[in-house]
Design goal:
The complex is a heterodimer of chains A (113) and B (110).
Chain A (H helix, E strand, L loop, with lengths): L3 E4 L2 E4 L5 E7 L5 E7 L5 E8 L2 E5 L6 E7 L2 E6 L8 E8 L7 E3 L3 E5 L1
Parallel strand pairs in A: 2-11
Antiparallel strand pairs in A: 1-3, 3-8, 4-5, 4-9, 5-6, 7-8, 9-10, 9-11
Chain B lengths: L3 E3 L4 E4 L4 E7 L4 E9 L5 E6 L5 E3 L2 E6 L4 E6 L8 E9 L6 E2 L3 E6 L1
Parallel strand pairs in B: 2-11
Antiparallel strand pairs in B: 1-3, 3-8, 4-5, 4-9, 6-7, 7-8, 9-10, 9-11
Classes of the chains: A mainly beta (113), B mainly beta (110).
């Protein structure tokens, strides 16, 4: 029943490792997003895909690479993790024309030690 | 100037009180407006979209003033469960990008 789901919910890893976060939405939306929320609670957009095409690519280190295998999935791969990558990463989706309302996944809390 | 500005609060109000939040935005081409609430350690959840003529959902009323570029949220008869951070969100026209304010923290006291 979950509209936007993410895995894993928690991720604890060491500096230098590579990790992936997965997101799936069953709302039939055509646009998906990755946001980062840091310790100051500010939500910052990182990437967005519309129909599998990258449409937003904010100033993010190229260690972060999104991938959208289809409209319902958007994954985030992070190489060479750094301490500063510790944050909560939210996936979201929206549909063009449907008032553009955006729905969020439960978040992945990443801790880099 | 930030693209979307909110008073961070916290607003501490007693149960049953009426509380109002304002949010200003800088891009006059903004087309979609929303209020989200975010509980501690949870995802933002859509509270309501804000329509040009204003809209109401139960105890919540949202207003849009395009001329002055602000939106407001009024909460009547506050409940303890209304305690959360309220995020103002704006989408400029012709973009897929959503601009989030930093949020206003509300604490409803018993």
């Amino acid at each position: 029943d979950t509209a936007v789901s993410q895995t894993p919910k928690y991720l604890v890893t060491q500096m230098g490792n590579d990790k992936s976060i997965k997101c799936e939405q069953n709302l039939g939306h055509d646009t998906m997003y990755w946001y980062k929320q840091d310790s100051k609670k500010f939500l910052k957009i990182m990437f967005s895909y519309n129909n599998k095409e990258l449409i937003i690519n904010e100033t993010v280190p190229n260690r972060f690479s999104p991938k959208s295998p289809d409209k319902a999935h958007l994954n985030l791969h992070i190489n060479s993790l750094e301490l500063g990558d510790s944050a909560v990463y939210f996936c979201a989706s929206s549909q063009v024309g449907a008032f553009y309302e955006q729905y969020f996944g439960p978040g992945t809390r990443l801790t880099v030690t | 100037r930030k693209e979307v500005e909110q008073d961070p609060g916290p607003f501490n109000v007693p149960e049953g009180a009426t509380v109002a939040f304002n949010c200003t935005y800088s891009n006059s081409a903004s087309q979609s407006f929303f209020w989200y609430r975010q509980d501690c350690r949870k995802e933002p959840k859509l509270l309501m979209s804000v329509y040009s003529s204003g809209n109401e959902d139960g105890r919540f009323t949202a207003q849009l003033n395009r001329a002055s570029q602000y939106i407001s949220l009024l909460i009547r008869d506050s409940k303890l469960s209304d305690s959360a951070t309220y995020l103002c969100v704006v989408r400029p026209g012709g973009t897929y990008k959503y601009i989030f304010g930093t949020g206003t923290r509300l604490k409803v006291l018993a």
